[in-house]
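Researcher: I need the complex structure. Ligand is 2'-O-acetyl adenosine-5-diphosphoribose. Inputs:
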Amino acid sequence: MTEERYPESPSPPPSLLKGEGGTKGREDVALVRERVAAAKNVMVITGAGISAESGVPTFRDDNGLWKEFNPLDYATREAFRRDPVKVWKWYDERRVNMAQARPNPGHLALAAMARPGRRVFIVTQNVDDLHEQAGSKEVVHIHGSLWRTRCERDGTVLENRETPLTEVPPPCMCGEIMRPDIVWFGENLPWQPVEQIHHYFLEGRIDLCLVVGTEASFGYILQWALQAHEAGAMLVDVNPRDSGLGSIIDVHLRGKAGEVLPKLL
Ligand code: OAD
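Model: Output:
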C-alpha cells in the first residue's frame, strides 16, 4: 500500500499543476447537472469550505484558523507532548462550536444526489460529521474525527461527544491521556480510509468527481482527483476561488457550495 503522509510543513506545497496552460474550467452548471443526471458513480472530495456555511471556520481563508493560530502549536504531536492542556482546550472550543453546527444545503444536496442506481462516494478532509448528519451513507474521513479520542499507548479509540469536556485532557483507562483522533502535521494518514479509497478506485468507471471547498494543498488530494479523471470522471471544482487543482479541472463552478450544489440536482 502506498503510504500517504499529511505534510510535515503546515504551509501548502506549491502545486505543480497550478498555472499550467491556463484554466480549462468554465462556469457551466447545466453541463454538470446533465452529467449528474446520467451518472451511476460520483466521487466527491470535500474540504473545510463545504462546512463554512454551517458556521465552521476554514483553515486558509482570510478568517481561517491557520491565520489566527500557528498549527505548530496546535496540530503536531510535539505540540501535544509539550502542552496537552493547551492543545485540548483549543480542540474543546472547536468541539463546542461544532456541536452547534448543522448541515447546510451543500451537504444536503450531496446526500440527495445518492439514490438507487447512483453511488455517491464522499472522501472528506473534514473532522466534523455534517455529511453523515445530512444523510450521506458512504463517507470516508481521511483526517480523523473531532468526536473521537485515541490513546497512543494502548490504542483505545473512543467516541466522545461531551461538550465542553469535563476533564482536560481526557484520561484513558490505562492511565495515559487521550489525544484527539485527528491526523496532525507530519503524521501518516490512517490506513483504513486510504484502503477504502484504493478499493473504490479498483471498482471501475467514475462518471463525475466533484471537488468541493478545498484548497487541494496536499499531494494525495491532487492524486485522487487525477485518478478519478483517469477513471473517466468529469472533474469539477466547486469553490468561490481558484484552488490548487489548477488546470487539471474540466469545469470550475465558481460559488459557494451551499448555493452551487443544490443546482446540480
Ligand atoms: P482550506 O481552509 O485550506 O481551504 C478552504 C477552501 O474552501 C478554500 O479554497 C476556499 O476558497 C473554499 N471555500 C470557502 N468557503 C466556501 C464555500 N462556502 N463553498 C465552497 N468553497 C468554499 O481547507 P482544506 O482544503 O479543507 O487538516 O484544508 C485541508 C486540511 O488542512 C484540513 O483538513 C485541515 C488543515 O490543516 C486537519 O485539520 C487535519
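Model: Summary of the prediction. The first strand starts at residue 41 and ends at 46.
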